[in-house]
Amino acid sequence: MKRFFAWLDRTFIKPVEDSKMSLGTFILIAAGYILVRNLAEGAFESLHILGLATITLHGLEETFLHLMFSWLYLFLVIILLMRLTTGHDIRKITRVLLIYSFIIIIPVIVDPLIRPGGFRLAYPTDITQLPKIVNVIFRPWIFLDPDLFYKFGPQLPYGGSPGMLIEGFLGAILVMVYSGIKAKPNWRKILSVVLTPLVIIGGLTAAGVAQVFMNVIPYYPPASGLDVYHSGGLINSPTRKYVIIILVPFMLLSLLGLWLYNREKFKLLIRSLEPLHLILGGLATLAGFFFARLNLRGILVGVPGNPFDYVALIVLAYLGLCTVALSRFIYKGFDPSSPPDVQKTFRRAAWGMFILAFALAWSVGYSTLFIAVVALFVGALLGLPPLRLGRFLVPSALVKAVSVYLLVFCGYALFATERTFSVVPWRQALGILIAVVGVFLAIELVTRYMIEDKTPAAKQADTKGA
């Protein structure tokens, strides 16, 4: 048996663990598996459509937002829990899990073979259905016996399928085997193997946080947790409501994962940020939200009132922080005074930050997305060659001010949508612009004066620290 596990390790695990590919490459590979799963699931299961929704726009939201981040969140939580149970290098765990995450494609291959018409897939909307789900997990032959299936099938609480059961059991076995091979002390081997079911359940619970939320909130009539996602509010798409529930914890756990993955690079990225600029970016989107609430309270009655309206505040704050961070990472990524490997680190971080900022803005609304993309572009002008406007005092201040100023409208757009720029009182808009420009001019003057006033020794110390 030891020889068999040693062969598995040597043949399938070590080559992946020792890979020199970047983290972003592994994430892109996993994202590819997710897209294959999403495409085939819609086409071959009971819906028989592309995009998992009858309306194309909703299909895009399902495919590239809801399900994409649900799966990535599942992988992230499993990686973190495996790091906790095994004590193994999280970089190696991440590479192996993302590469072999192609097992998520199993259901769309197996299910059409068993039932060409596809299986009905839906989320549970009542926490009391949990025992039925467990019953199905431990009685998988229900799917294989036509008499039992058609007798019990209509009572299935979540529209599971044989492929999903195979996927789940195989995933648990692979996690168990990998954990047993890689955990070093014997007590860790035993612990990691025994806790494998909890690792899988923890990952599934986190990835399905939107569905958990659906089951534990007070019900909206008619007595179904699903109705909370169709209860109106500032975010009119149920799918994007799912997404913001996922993105709030996903962003925090991503920071933890990146810190564990490479602490030195994580510290490099964090130290490069300008705290005051970062704070102003995070506050700008929130300010826009409250300006809109104040100005439009007589027109838009009853908002904010939905729970998702307030969760959106966290997403808006994330958006402001990511926009500012992206601008800074681009500037550092094209800094000719930095070594090539440092530039590469910042450029990769910039791509990741762009994807996150785009997803955050999209989840809140399309008007916010339109404005956020422009804010991202303006902020990028600080560092993109050949302009690199961040080199100059006044252009740097103006670019930062305009980017943050646009973030204010991102928050405002949650209320005013497509008419955001036409309904904002022009005096208020002008006053905000003047104030923001003045603040950044002052920051640039003070910062650059302090830098120029440093002694050569202090400058040399700064260079070594970077």
3D architecture notes:
With 466 residues, the protein is mainly α. The chain is built from 21 helices and no strands. Helix 11 crosses helix 12. The longest helix has 31 residues, at 56-86.
Outline the fold blueprint:
Blueprint: H1 2-17, H2 23-44, H3 56-86, H4 90-99, H5 106-114, H6 130-137, H7 146-152, H8 162-182, H9 186-194, H10 196-207, H11 209-216, H12 238-261, H13 263-272, H14 275-296, H15 307-333, H16 340-364, H17 366-380, H18 393-416, H19 420-423, H20 426-452, H21 456-465
Can you give keywords for this protein?
disordered C terminus, 73% helix, mainly alpha, 21 helices, 466 residues, single chain
- Approximately what portion of the residues adopt beta-strand conformation? under 5%
Distance between the termini: 50 Å
Shape: globular
Radius of gyration: 25 Å
The averaged pLDDT comes out at: 88
How many strand units? 0
Main sheet overview: none
Q: What's the order of the H and E elements? A: HHHHHHHHHHHHHHHHHHHHH
Give the helix level as a range of percent.
over 70%
| Helix/strand structural class | mainly alpha
Number of helix segments? 21
Stretches where pLDDT is under 50 for at least 5 consecutive residues are 219-223, 455-459, 461-466
